[in-house]
Amino acid sequence: MSGARGQFSSKTGFVMAAAGSAVGLGNIWGFPTQTASNGGAAFVMVYFILAFLLAYPALMAELIIGRHANANVVSALSGLGRKPLTRFIGAGVGYYGIIVASLILSFYTIVAGWMIAYLGEPVTAVLGAEEAGTWLTTDSVTRNLIFGSGFAFLTMWIIGSGIENGIERWSTRLMPVLIGLLLCLIVYVLTQDGAMEGLKVYLLPDLSRVTDPKLIIDALGQAFFSLSLGVGTMLVYGSYLSKEESLPRLGAIVTFVDCGIAFTAGLLIIPAIYVAQHNGLTIYNDAGELIAGPSLIFQVLPSLFDSMGAAGTFVGFAFFALMSIAALTSSISMLEVPVSMTVEKTKLNRKQSTYLIGLTIFAISTTIIFNFDLLFTFVIDFTTKYSEPLLGVMLCIFAGWVMHRDKLLAEVSAGHPDIENSFFWKIWPTYVRFVCPVLILITFSQSMAG
Ligand code: TRP
Fold it and tell me: What is the pLDDT of residue 2?
């Protein structure tokens, strides 16, 4: 093992980093579009309930295991076992998490590259370089390689700089910018004609849909992805947290911020879709469903910005800046999962580990770019639909069944001395042992069957 492990310098530093990880394309793109295709406010309600009832306890499992072990995901999980078999399974789950985190990063990098390309488009418009603008917004292997690699290097540069000087510093700088941009965009979009109709769809629930299985499955998957759960991201961030902080409280703040920003992003995206309709753009596909996939972000919204005249250039720039920042504070948290293990298990230092792993993951992105139709959706489904819920169950089992109850209590008590008599400690241990694994498995099997 080379050198001492880093640490977050403060509570705010941790909250910014963990919220930065959680708040990503999943919040600004995934949440509003899932809401739009699942009956508006009914989805929002179910999402919030599941986020606090299932995702928060699972987040706590990761934070507690991480801070207790003070190590990367593989060492942490194998270290919990008292028998060789549980140690072996722990290491296996850890490696599986590392592979899934790396694969999530490989497709996330491609999508983030698109965001950066679109960020450049308004700049070319101002400069009068129209051809360049068309190139930036037209799908091509060359464009995807250039901007994907740019984003990958940015991620590597931050992770190579360490916990405090990289992750914490950049999350603390970028998160306020993200919130500022989001709020400015909302204020602007809500003043446009058509916005109020979108706001109604977003805020008035169609209660008949609350029990729809598809809605529930989508909401749970979205909550897990949004809180970066399952692959060890939060476990590793927890391992950089001082014993003086209260884990249940910080976990609740992170869940709250994540839900709050997802909700706020809905106030932007859904009204924007209806403003686009008001301006004569098509917002439904041939099947009569609201356009939600890449064409929403890369066609409907850019056409909306175009229809806004001169202001549209700034709005478009601000929007893609928002997306790029959201992506960056999340991608660094994915890269930290394999890098922390490499630093702790090999003789390589942080910079060497970062570039070795970062370039390997970019090689996977490149493979996906060259075989896009074959691999892109496959990798997304394999990681987010199948692997994350299963890993989530395993992490709950490790916290609930493998980690000794005394150790759990000791860990949550550090930074929160009166925890033993709290509501949290009365229900959480039973929750991670039974309720979370069973409910996640039920939802998972439903989604397999559907
Ligand atoms: N939570 C981020 C989002 O909403 C994505 C993310 C970051 C993530 N780290 C992760 C997802 C780890 C799964 C696992 O976009």
Answer: 42
